[in-house]
Amino acid sequence: xxxxxxxxxxxxxxxxxxxxxEQGVYKVNNLLNNEGSIVSLLHKILLHNxxxxxxxxxFRGFAGFDGRTVxxxxxxxxxxxxxxxxxxxxxxxxxxxxxxxxxxxxRFSNGEYEAWxxxxxxxxxxxxxxxxxxxxxxxxxxx
Length: 143
Description:
17% of the residues lie in helices and 34% in strands. By secondary structure, it is of the alpha+beta class. β4 (58-63) and β5 form a beta hairpin.
């Protein structure tokens, strides 16, 4: 029950329950998108941080139910006064980072990394027009 001390419950998705605090968002991850692997999740977080440092994650600890589940708790800076970015904004932003748009909407590659699920629900734009990727699937492309 201590998880509610992190912040106000926010929107939850397939893999995270979120708790919104004044300065950031805590994401309690159920590892469903990472085949139950904490190592896989942390690898994905390192890739995210390398590509999108403005919304870099930090590992804060574990939540879960004693003897039943382990759920990593991640922290991400909160983007104030933001709303979902349009797909055109996302495409333009990714092009500025050197990524090429692939045939599937919201999927990009720069030859070293492939990032997908870059859709308005996962990318925010603030009042100044700055774009922030808050959730993405990322993998290193084998060469």
